[in-house]
Amino acid sequence: MRPPTDDNGATSTVIARVLPEHRRRGLGTRLYERALETAHALDTQVIETVVAASNPDGLRFAEQHGFVEIERHLLREGDTVHWIGLRLT
Questions:
Q1: Is 82 exposed, middle or buried (0-12, 13-18, 19+ CB in 10 A)?
Q2: What's the pLDDT score for residue 8?
Q3: Domain that holds residue 61
Q4: By three-state DSSP, how is residue 47 classified?
Q5: Core vs surface per residue 47-56: b (16+ CB within 10 A) or e
Q6: Domain count across the chain
Q7: Tens of pLDDT along the chain (89 residues)?
Q8: How many CA atoms lie within 13 A of 5 on its CB side?
Q9: What's the CATH number where 32 sits?
Q10: Which of 41, 59, 62, 75 shows a CA-CA span of 20 to 30 A to 30?
């Protein structure tokens, strides 16, 4: 969890990445819930995440937990994999 640093401390970024061989065991959910607790303890108003477009499992996880897409971008010129910015609704 990246603590609030912008919007007067209103936005935190939560990222829970689990290696494919460890998915579907509840690890991502536990990481995500812990990060949310921390974000709320910091009085976060907006919670965001980013997922690589090449990670359909991660995107599905985020959407199932209430995140909606707000942007797509490339990290560097010449990259081919977009990153998807999502916000918790």
A1: middle
A2: 63
A3: 2-88
A4: strand
A5: bbbbbeeebe
A6: 1
A7: 555 555 566 888 888 888 989 989 999 999 999 988 998 888 888 999 999 999 999 999 999 999 999 999 998 999 999 999 999 98
A8: 6
A9: 3.40.630.30
A10: 75
